[in-house]
Amino acid sequence: MIAIFDKDTLLNALVPVMYTVSGKNTMACIEGIHMTCKDDGQCMLQSYDLEKGMRTFVECETEREGSCIINAQRLFQIVKTMPKGPIKITVDSSYKTVVESANGLSHFDIKSLPGSEFPTLPELKGDRGFMFPQHLFRKFVNRILFAIGQNDTRPVFNGAYFQITGNKMILVSCDGNRLAYCENDMEIENKNIAIGSTLNLKFIVPGKTLVEVLKLVKDTEEEMEIRLTLKYVLFKIGKYILFSKTIDSEYIDYNRIIPKNQNLELTLNAEDLRGALERSSLIIEDRLAGSIRSYVKFTIDEALSVSTQSANGNVYDEIEIEKLSGDSLTIGFNCKFLLDALKVCDDGKMKLGFVNPLMGVLIEPQSKEEGKYLYFVMPIRMNN
Fold first, then answer.
1. Architecture of domain 128-254
2. Helix (H) or strand (E) run with residue 56 in it
3. Options 3.10.150.10, 1.10.3720.10, 3.40.50.2300, 3.40.630.190; which CATH number does 259-377 get?
4. Which pLDDT band, with edges at 50, 70 and 90, does 23 fall under?
5. How confident is the model at residue 233 (pLDDT cuts 50, 70, 90)?
6. What is the mean pLDDT of residues 202-210?
């Protein structure tokens, strides 16, 4: 294989492809980027960690067709440090690889692998799919991303649930301690292959995949396409296709988790509560005396008092509220769990709903923005 690339063009294409390179050091072929150059002026770049992968094309001048696998980190660092201008990559029959500048003054001799050793990728042509603006995807996913579990033993907690019905999209995430719910009606373009079929899709995307997708989407009206195969979800964003295994499991019955009736309801300013929790977080310890967790305590009467005690000190805040119904209540929370929910809420009024000290809090932003957003956070059993 012999191909000539523009340094900046190749470097810009490599950055996203690096997102799905394996970092587990188990197989040399998945620690690399698969390059396939043909006489059509395009080089296909692929990476795949056996769970998720990426495919894109970059312009090049192909002098000899071929394919190879080059260690991703090594290739990226080499291209990054090469001088501006054309870069020539030559791979001989023994897979000795030379990366050199056009003038030949800078060059690297490295070893690559045959392209045939790269794992077989899934079919990237799902028969069901839809399109909508990138900025809406970024907005909705950012509202529920914080509540996705990290390496939980229960697979569904490690992903976000998508439900698309006609022009309605519902996103849900839950890690067992908090739940985020987002519902919006909007224009969704049906891209199902079957003529006349309606959008009725349900699937679970791993949280780690969504983190990588967010690196590709922009705050723009430009549309992205999401397609589904039997076991994979495909995100087509510009010239990139990011694909990932879906979580093959039934999602939790989230409607049973969200309390329908609260014994105590109040409204307050979101910014006031966020500020109080940020001050509490300055002195909270995750673990105290080896096993006892410190927490933030809510005492609700005529006002909401937010207090914390730990080995680092004490903090107390009092927030004005408008009580809508119910009596007094004292309840404890993990401060970080509450803060994560409040950070994705807009400033302005929000409603808090409580059932009892053991049932947590339902947070409902009261912004005029279209859509419905709910956050539910479980409490901590306090020492006293």
1. Roll (3.10)
2. strand 52-59
3. 3.10.150.10
4. confident
5. very high
6. 96
